[in-house]
UniProtKB/TrEMBL annotation:
<comment type="similarity">
    <text>Belongs to the ABC-4 integral membrane protein family. FtsX subfamily.</text>
</comment>
<feature type="transmembrane region" description="Helical">
    <location>
        <begin position="179"/>
        <end position="200"/>
    </location>
</feature>
<dbReference type="InterPro" id="IPR040690">
    <property type="entry name" value="FtsX_ECD"/>
</dbReference>
<keyword id="KW-0132">Cell division</keyword>
<keyword id="KW-1003">Cell membrane</keyword>
<keyword id="KW-1133">Transmembrane helix</keyword>
<keyword id="KW-0472">Membrane</keyword>
<dbReference type="InterPro" id="IPR004513">
    <property type="entry name" value="FtsX"/>
</dbReference>
<comment type="function">
    <text>Part of the ABC transporter FtsEX involved in cellular division.</text>
</comment>
<feature type="domain" description="FtsX extracellular">
    <location>
        <begin position="56"/>
        <end position="160"/>
    </location>
</feature>
<feature type="transmembrane region" description="Helical">
    <location>
        <begin position="236"/>
        <end position="259"/>
    </location>
</feature>
<feature type="transmembrane region" description="Helical">
    <location>
        <begin position="21"/>
        <end position="41"/>
    </location>
</feature>
<dbReference type="GO" id="GO:0051301">
    <property type="term" value="P:cell division"/>
</dbReference>
<dbReference type="InterPro" id="IPR003838">
    <property type="entry name" value="ABC3_permease_C"/>
</dbReference>
<dbReference type="Pfam" id="PF02687">
    <property type="entry name" value="FtsX"/>
</dbReference>
<comment type="subunit">
    <text>Forms a membrane-associated complex with FtsE.</text>
</comment>
<dbReference type="GO" id="GO:0005886">
    <property type="term" value="C:plasma membrane"/>
</dbReference>
Protein backbone atom coordinates (compact mmCIF):
# COMPACT_ATOMS: atom_id res chain seq x y z
CA UNK A 1 0.00 0.00 0.00
CA UNK A 2 1.37 3.38 -1.01
CA UNK A 3 1.20 5.66 1.99
CA UNK A 4 1.56 8.77 -0.15
CA UNK A 5 -1.49 7.84 -2.22
CA UNK A 6 -3.58 7.16 0.89
CA UNK A 7 -2.57 10.48 2.47
CA UNK A 8 -3.35 12.37 -0.74
CA UNK A 9 -6.78 10.74 -0.89
CA UNK A 10 -7.43 11.73 2.72
CA UNK A 11 -6.55 15.35 1.90
CA UNK A 12 -8.83 15.34 -1.14
CA UNK A 13 -11.73 13.93 0.86
CA UNK A 14 -11.34 16.47 3.66
CA UNK A 15 -11.20 19.39 1.21
CA UNK A 16 -14.24 18.23 -0.74
CA UNK A 17 -16.38 17.86 2.41
CA UNK A 18 -14.93 20.64 4.51
CA UNK A 19 -18.26 21.83 5.92
CA UNK A 20 -19.46 18.36 6.92
CA UNK A 21 -16.03 17.50 8.30
CA UNK A 22 -16.17 20.60 10.49
CA UNK A 23 -19.64 19.57 11.70
CA UNK A 24 -18.28 16.12 12.57
CA UNK A 25 -15.37 17.63 14.51
CA UNK A 26 -17.69 19.91 16.52
CA UNK A 27 -20.20 17.14 17.25
CA UNK A 28 -17.50 14.70 18.34
CA UNK A 29 -15.83 17.39 20.47
CA UNK A 30 -19.05 18.29 22.30
CA UNK A 31 -20.18 14.69 22.82
CA UNK A 32 -16.79 13.57 24.12
CA UNK A 33 -16.45 16.66 26.31
CA UNK A 34 -19.81 15.78 27.88
CA UNK A 35 -18.68 12.17 28.21
CA UNK A 36 -15.46 13.17 29.96
CA UNK A 37 -17.31 15.70 32.09
CA UNK A 38 -19.80 13.02 33.17
CA UNK A 39 -16.98 10.70 34.21
CA UNK A 40 -15.36 13.51 36.19
CA UNK A 41 -18.65 14.49 37.82
CA UNK A 42 -19.27 10.90 38.88
CA UNK A 43 -15.79 10.82 40.39
CA UNK A 44 -16.47 14.16 42.09
CA UNK A 45 -19.65 12.80 43.68
CA UNK A 46 -17.72 9.75 44.89
CA UNK A 47 -15.01 11.97 46.34
CA UNK A 48 -17.57 14.14 48.10
CA UNK A 49 -19.31 11.12 49.57
CA UNK A 50 -16.06 9.72 50.90
CA UNK A 51 -14.96 13.10 52.25
CA UNK A 52 -18.20 14.19 53.91
CA UNK A 53 -19.46 10.81 55.06
CA UNK A 54 -16.19 10.47 56.91
CA UNK A 55 -16.92 13.72 58.74
CA UNK A 56 -20.64 13.55 59.48
CA UNK A 57 -21.91 12.44 62.87
CA UNK A 58 -25.04 10.97 64.32
CA UNK A 59 -26.55 13.54 66.66
CA UNK A 60 -28.58 12.44 69.69
CA UNK A 61 -30.53 15.50 70.85
CA UNK A 62 -31.58 15.47 74.49
CA UNK A 63 -34.75 16.92 75.98
CA UNK A 64 -34.57 20.22 77.81
CA UNK A 65 -37.12 21.83 80.12
CA UNK A 66 -38.82 23.66 77.26
CA UNK A 67 -39.52 20.51 75.23
CA UNK A 68 -42.03 18.83 77.54
CA UNK A 69 -45.06 20.60 76.05
CA UNK A 70 -43.94 20.74 72.41
CA UNK A 71 -42.18 17.42 71.86
CA UNK A 72 -44.08 14.14 72.49
CA UNK A 73 -40.79 12.30 73.00
CA UNK A 74 -39.99 14.63 75.91
CA UNK A 75 -43.32 14.30 77.71
CA UNK A 76 -41.53 12.74 80.68
CA UNK A 77 -39.45 15.88 81.20
CA UNK A 78 -35.91 17.06 80.66
CA UNK A 79 -33.03 14.63 80.55
CA UNK A 80 -31.41 13.85 83.90
CA UNK A 81 -27.72 13.51 84.71
CA UNK A 82 -28.13 9.77 85.29
CA UNK A 83 -29.77 9.36 81.90
CA UNK A 84 -26.94 11.25 80.19
CA UNK A 85 -24.34 9.08 81.90
CA UNK A 86 -26.19 5.92 80.88
CA UNK A 87 -26.56 7.04 77.26
CA UNK A 88 -22.85 7.86 77.03
CA UNK A 89 -21.84 4.58 78.63
CA UNK A 90 -24.05 2.59 76.24
CA UNK A 91 -22.69 4.47 73.24
CA UNK A 92 -19.08 3.87 74.20
CA UNK A 93 -19.75 0.15 74.52
CA UNK A 94 -21.08 -0.16 70.95
CA UNK A 95 -18.45 -1.60 68.54
CA UNK A 96 -19.62 0.59 65.65
CA UNK A 97 -19.00 3.81 67.61
CA UNK A 98 -15.61 5.42 67.05
CA UNK A 99 -15.91 8.30 69.50
CA UNK A 100 -18.53 10.28 71.42
CA UNK A 101 -18.57 14.02 72.13
CA UNK A 102 -21.00 15.83 74.39
CA UNK A 103 -22.21 19.30 73.37
CA UNK A 104 -23.62 21.55 76.10
CA UNK A 105 -26.32 24.16 75.57
CA UNK A 106 -23.72 26.94 75.67
CA UNK A 107 -21.63 25.20 73.00
CA UNK A 108 -24.72 24.58 70.89
CA UNK A 109 -25.68 28.26 71.18
CA UNK A 110 -22.17 29.34 70.18
CA UNK A 111 -22.15 27.05 67.14
CA UNK A 112 -25.60 28.26 66.11
CA UNK A 113 -24.50 31.88 66.30
CA UNK A 114 -21.43 31.10 64.19
CA UNK A 115 -23.47 29.41 61.47
CA UNK A 116 -26.75 31.36 61.54
CA UNK A 117 -25.83 34.60 63.27
CA UNK A 118 -27.47 36.70 60.54
CA UNK A 119 -30.79 34.91 60.86
CA UNK A 120 -33.63 36.98 62.42
CA UNK A 121 -34.37 34.12 64.81
CA UNK A 122 -30.83 34.18 66.23
CA UNK A 123 -31.43 37.43 68.14
CA UNK A 124 -34.31 35.87 70.11
CA UNK A 125 -32.56 32.65 71.12
CA UNK A 126 -30.91 32.12 74.47
CA UNK A 127 -28.55 29.32 75.55
CA UNK A 128 -31.19 27.66 77.74
CA UNK A 129 -33.40 27.19 74.68
CA UNK A 130 -30.72 25.11 72.94
CA UNK A 131 -30.42 21.37 73.32
CA UNK A 132 -27.66 19.29 74.74
CA UNK A 133 -26.57 16.53 72.42
CA UNK A 134 -24.16 13.68 71.88
CA UNK A 135 -22.16 13.82 68.63
CA UNK A 136 -21.47 10.22 67.70
CA UNK A 137 -18.78 9.33 65.16
CA UNK A 138 -19.44 5.91 63.60
CA UNK A 139 -16.84 3.60 62.12
CA UNK A 140 -19.31 2.92 59.31
CA UNK A 141 -21.74 5.84 58.70
CA UNK A 142 -24.14 3.50 56.88
CA UNK A 143 -24.99 1.83 60.21
CA UNK A 144 -26.89 4.83 61.51
CA UNK A 145 -30.05 2.75 62.03
CA UNK A 146 -28.31 0.70 64.72
CA UNK A 147 -27.84 3.82 66.85
CA UNK A 148 -31.28 5.16 65.97
CA UNK A 149 -33.13 1.99 66.99
CA UNK A 150 -31.13 1.77 70.24
CA UNK A 151 -31.64 5.37 71.44
CA UNK A 152 -34.64 6.91 69.65
CA UNK A 153 -37.10 5.72 72.31
CA UNK A 154 -34.84 6.33 75.32
CA UNK A 155 -36.09 8.53 78.12
CA UNK A 156 -34.54 11.99 77.81
CA UNK A 157 -33.87 11.64 74.07
CA UNK A 158 -35.81 13.95 71.78
CA UNK A 159 -34.42 12.86 68.42
CA UNK A 160 -31.66 10.85 66.78
CA UNK A 161 -30.54 12.57 63.59
CA UNK A 162 -28.28 11.32 60.81
CA UNK A 163 -26.39 14.30 59.42
CA UNK A 164 -26.00 12.52 56.11
CA UNK A 165 -29.56 13.63 55.31
CA UNK A 166 -28.34 17.19 54.86
CA UNK A 167 -25.91 16.02 52.16
CA UNK A 168 -28.31 13.80 50.24
CA UNK A 169 -30.09 16.63 48.34
CA UNK A 170 -26.76 18.01 47.07
CA UNK A 171 -25.47 14.59 46.07
CA UNK A 172 -28.79 13.74 44.40
CA UNK A 173 -28.63 17.03 42.49
CA UNK A 174 -25.13 16.22 41.26
CA UNK A 175 -26.21 12.72 40.26
CA UNK A 176 -29.17 14.20 38.39
CA UNK A 177 -26.90 16.62 36.56
CA UNK A 178 -24.62 13.71 35.71
CA UNK A 179 -27.52 11.72 34.24
CA UNK A 180 -28.67 14.78 32.26
CA UNK A 181 -25.14 15.28 30.89
CA UNK A 182 -25.03 11.61 29.87
CA UNK A 183 -28.37 12.01 28.09
CA UNK A 184 -27.18 15.06 26.16
CA UNK A 185 -23.91 13.23 25.42
CA UNK A 186 -25.82 10.26 23.99
CA UNK A 187 -27.87 12.60 21.78
CA UNK A 188 -24.77 14.40 20.55
CA UNK A 189 -23.08 11.06 19.94
CA UNK A 190 -25.96 9.90 17.75
CA UNK A 191 -25.78 13.18 15.80
CA UNK A 192 -22.02 12.78 15.40
CA UNK A 193 -22.37 9.19 14.16
CA UNK A 194 -25.05 10.22 11.63
CA UNK A 195 -22.85 13.04 10.39
CA UNK A 196 -19.89 10.67 10.06
CA UNK A 197 -21.94 8.14 8.08
CA UNK A 198 -23.35 10.84 5.78
CA UNK A 199 -19.93 12.44 5.30
CA UNK A 200 -18.40 9.10 4.34
CA UNK A 201 -21.27 8.33 1.95
CA UNK A 202 -20.98 11.75 0.27
CA UNK A 203 -17.22 11.37 0.00
CA UNK A 204 -17.53 7.88 -1.46
CA UNK A 205 -20.17 9.05 -3.94
CA UNK A 206 -18.06 12.00 -5.09
CA UNK A 207 -15.14 9.65 -5.77
CA UNK A 208 -17.10 6.75 -7.23
CA UNK A 209 -15.22 7.03 -10.55
CA UNK A 210 -11.83 6.71 -8.86
CA UNK A 211 -12.97 3.80 -6.72
CA UNK A 212 -14.44 2.08 -9.78
CA UNK A 213 -11.12 2.37 -11.63
CA UNK A 214 -9.26 1.05 -8.58
CA UNK A 215 -11.56 -1.95 -8.46
CA UNK A 216 -11.01 -2.65 -12.16
CA UNK A 217 -7.22 -2.68 -11.74
CA UNK A 218 -7.50 -5.21 -8.91
CA UNK A 219 -7.33 -3.07 -5.75
CA UNK A 220 -8.65 -4.82 -2.65
CA UNK A 221 -11.72 -3.60 -0.81
CA UNK A 222 -9.64 -2.65 2.21
CA UNK A 223 -7.24 -0.60 0.06
CA UNK A 224 -10.18 1.30 -1.42
CA UNK A 225 -11.89 1.85 1.92
CA UNK A 226 -8.89 2.82 4.04
CA UNK A 227 -8.73 6.51 2.91
CA UNK A 228 -12.39 7.04 3.86
CA UNK A 229 -11.91 5.33 7.21
CA UNK A 230 -8.82 7.39 7.96
CA UNK A 231 -10.65 10.60 7.01
CA UNK A 232 -13.32 9.85 9.58
CA UNK A 233 -10.70 8.81 12.16
CA UNK A 234 -8.73 12.01 11.58
CA UNK A 235 -11.83 14.18 11.99
CA UNK A 236 -12.77 12.25 15.14
CA UNK A 237 -9.28 12.63 16.55
CA UNK A 238 -9.42 16.39 15.98
CA UNK A 239 -12.79 16.46 17.77
CA UNK A 240 -11.37 14.43 20.65
CA UNK A 241 -8.44 16.84 20.86
CA UNK A 242 -10.84 19.78 21.19
CA UNK A 243 -12.77 17.81 23.83
CA UNK A 244 -9.55 17.39 25.80
CA UNK A 245 -8.92 21.13 25.53
CA UNK A 246 -12.42 21.78 26.89
CA UNK A 247 -11.89 19.40 29.81
CA UNK A 248 -8.50 20.88 30.69
CA UNK A 249 -9.87 24.42 30.32
CA UNK A 250 -12.86 23.56 32.51
CA UNK A 251 -10.59 22.19 35.23
CA UNK A 252 -8.25 25.18 35.09
CA UNK A 253 -10.70 28.07 34.73
CA UNK A 254 -13.95 26.74 36.21
CA UNK A 255 -12.68 24.55 39.04
CA UNK A 256 -9.20 25.71 40.03
CA UNK A 257 -9.64 29.45 39.46
CA UNK A 258 -13.29 29.92 40.44
CA UNK A 259 -15.13 27.12 42.25
CA UNK A 260 -12.38 26.43 44.79
CA UNK A 261 -12.54 30.11 45.81
CA UNK A 262 -16.34 30.25 45.89
CA UNK A 263 -17.05 26.93 47.64
CA UNK A 264 -14.45 26.08 50.25
CA UNK A 265 -16.41 23.22 51.87
CA UNK A 266 -16.03 20.85 48.92
CA UNK A 267 -12.91 18.89 48.12
CA UNK A 268 -12.69 19.08 44.32
CA UNK A 269 -10.98 16.49 42.16
CA UNK A 270 -7.48 17.35 40.96
CA UNK A 271 -5.50 17.23 37.75
CA UNK A 272 -4.73 13.54 38.16
CA UNK A 273 -8.41 12.68 37.64
CA UNK A 274 -8.67 14.92 34.57
CA UNK A 275 -5.46 13.70 32.92
CA UNK A 276 -6.45 10.08 33.51
CA UNK A 277 -9.59 10.60 31.35
CA UNK A 278 -7.84 12.21 28.38
CA UNK A 279 -6.39 9.00 26.83
CA UNK A 280 -9.85 7.40 26.97
CA UNK A 281 -11.41 10.43 25.25
CA UNK A 282 -8.74 10.36 22.52
CA UNK A 283 -9.14 6.61 22.00
CA UNK A 284 -12.91 6.88 21.63
CA UNK A 285 -12.54 9.88 19.33
CA UNK A 286 -10.23 7.87 17.08
CA UNK A 287 -11.98 4.49 17.09
CA UNK A 288 -15.65 5.53 17.07
CA UNK A 289 -15.59 7.44 13.73
CA UNK A 290 -13.35 4.79 12.14
CA UNK A 291 -15.80 2.05 13.10
CA UNK A 292 -18.77 4.13 11.91
CA UNK A 293 -17.02 4.77 8.59
CA UNK A 294 -16.21 1.07 8.18
CA UNK A 295 -19.85 0.12 8.75
CA UNK A 296 -21.04 2.83 6.34
CA UNK A 297 -18.63 1.71 3.62
CA UNK A 298 -19.47 -1.94 4.11
CA UNK A 299 -23.13 -1.10 3.72
CA UNK A 300 -23.10 1.58 1.04
CA UNK A 301 -19.86 1.47 -0.95
CA UNK A 302 -20.12 -1.00 -3.78
CA UNK A 303 -16.63 -2.33 -4.37
Amino acid sequence: MRAQFVLSEIGVGLRRNLTMTFAVIVSVALSLALFGGSLLMREQVGTMKGYWYDKVNVSIYLCNKNDAETQPACARGAVTEDQKKQIRADLEQMPIVQNVQFETTDEAYKHYKEQFGKSPIASFLTPDQMQESFRVKLRDPAKYQVVSSAFAQRAGVQEVEDQRKTLEPLLNLLNGMNIAALGVMALMLVVALMLIVNTVRVSAFSRRRETGIMRLVGASSFYIQIPFIMEAAFAGLLGAGFACVLLVGGQYFLVNNWLVHQIDVIQFIGWDAVLAKLPLVLAIGLLMPALAAFVALWRYLKV
